[in-house]
């Protein structure tokens, strides 16, 4: 008889796939790092890392490389999860010096989604779920993000090139509110620019679109509105950790366009894909309709033939 052994995860434990996240460098370069030692079972890699110096990805691109699975109790803390992840063979070869140099993100739709913070918080408090996947991001220096801090990826637009400089992390303290004015001031201070001479926009990678975040003149008009109408947490921005913010220096670039050539190409690809799906749907619909008509006609023909046949007389 064959003996079948089935591996199961105990109640109260999580089996979490761990990925390695390397942020894209829109300037055309990626961090130089050897990926040859990463595990990739059954081709489990989302995106391939281009060679250094090759045309690099834009903000929409995310590379996640599979490292392995970690089994851990839901009672364990975030720092204990980091320690277990660091023990994976693929991670140990990277010689990460400390758990404090690792950010942990949840993974949704093949990209980092929610930043897990507070080292000594138990995993069950994050409500990860049984199908949760996590990715690690290596930091150059330790960080201690507070509950009011929002981590944003900021990129300065290159005038006349429809491209952006190297992405830089910006920590925004939202203690005084999630207002457009507060974010604009933080960005201006970070890049040492006059606040009235910048425009900012949030990038939506799934749509390849940039949504401007209220111009200076609009901010003055908004002062008469209620505070809850001027929050970036709600629609249409839904700002959160990890979002990309494009910055335009109006001293050198005063047009309204935030998009890149890549955005144009990908939006056209999405349009063609949608048209292809629509065309395929109608073709299948017509085939099903034809089959239905044919089967109906066949049943009617069989019925008529039956009625025309003489009954057997005993």
Automatic annotation (TrEMBL):
<feature type="region of interest" description="Disordered">
    <location>
        <begin position="31"/>
        <end position="60"/>
    </location>
</feature>
<protein>
    <submittedName>
        <fullName>Uncharacterized protein</fullName>
    </submittedName>
</protein>
